[in-house]
Amino acid sequence: MIHYKDKLAKGSWVTYRAEIKVLDCTVRDGGLINDHHFMEGFVKAVYDTCVAAGIDYMELGYKASKKIFAPDQFGLWKFCEEDDLRRIVGDNPTPLKLCAMADAERTDYHTDILPKDQSVLDCIRVAAYIHQLPTALDMIKDAHDKGYETTLNLMSISVVHDNDMAEALEVLAASPVDSLYIVDSFGSLYSEQVRDLTLAFLKAVEGTGKEVGVHAHNNMQLAYANTIEAIILGANRIDATINGMGRGAGNCPMELLLAFLKNPKFHLRPVLECIQNVFLPLQSEMEWGYQLPYLLTGMLNQHPRSAIKIRASDNPDDYVGFYDQVTEKE
User: Is the pTM here over 0.70, yes or no?
Assistant: First the structure.
């Protein structure tokens, strides 16, 4: 039997790769559950936890267009105004780097993303579907020219055709983006698919100095396993959320990831303390994490919006009815 360590694995289970950087996206991805109406105390608790745990990056929310998203319908973290950020982090006198996400075609990036020297943010994460790549490339250049680190999070990757993926990676490898993220938006990927995608991304950026990242959703309870698969193969930019909080089935849980990584700079105890004191009480107010409807949308490689809808309905546990609905043949 040929093992990964013989051919592919970057390191071994008794060592660690210092190049691995962990990004907490709890507030940003978790905010999709409640339209980003998190109290400031919650955001501060996550920030303090990230600092104490030695996490490298924290994503505070979106830079969304107020022409598209009405401010009276969404919380502060949908827009990440500078004054709101600084009430939480001050001038951020810590090693933790701060990020915001900007969705292609849903942000007024030329005006709403300030030059880096006017912002407490360090990194702009551009999220785009493959057909939005021209806009995303302009957003990356804009953020890069303003002085930010940048990532490109390629969403819904499980429905992208191989030829389109190859062309996209070629163009992105020639751009100023710092990291390219594999995003399993539907939580539908298996480890073999993550393996092939990670190797394709790594090959595309070879020699460019760019990093490859992974952002996994937990529809089939594979977010952690798929994240580990990408790490073993060489992905160095890793997304996770505290207690797995995130849209629908949630994301790779931060506590699992830190328990796996061997770098002594990471500390698990602050994350456990935050879960105990902050997240457990929240579970009576909002739902996140694996539920059977998310399994079904993940299995079928579908967006989880229909599963989210039934979980918010008067009959959230009608699993058989939901199965019949999503598998009904046209």
Answer: yes
